[in-house]
Design a protein that fits this description.
7 strands; three-stranded mixed beta sheet; mainly beta; about 100 residues; Formyltetrahydrofolate synthetase, domain 3
Amino acid sequence: MLFLCCSFYLIFVSFIDKVYLIFTNKYSDLAICIAKTPLSFSHDPKLRAAASNFDLEISDVRLSRGAGFIVVLTKGIITMPGLPKKPNAEEIFIDEFGMISGKL
C-alpha cells in the first residue's frame, strides 16, 4: 500500500496500480529482483523444499531507478532504509563526563 498526498488529497495507490505505473513509464526493460525468505522457494518459510505447487504471494513492488531494477517484495519481507551520504554518527559527541550530545 502506498499513500500519496498531493494538493491536500490523500490518494491510495494499490499494488496493481504501482505495477501499471512502472511498466507504462518505460521501466519495463529494468531487471526484476524478488525479495523473499531464503528458507523456502515460496514466501512461507514453513514450506521447506517446496519446489512446486505453491503460490508466491506478492505484497509490494518498488522501483529502484538509480540501481536499475524493480524490487518485488513477497509477503512478510521488510526492507532497510537507505543510508544518508553523511552518517549521523559524525554529529554525535561524548564529553569528558560521558554525556552524549548532538544528533541522536
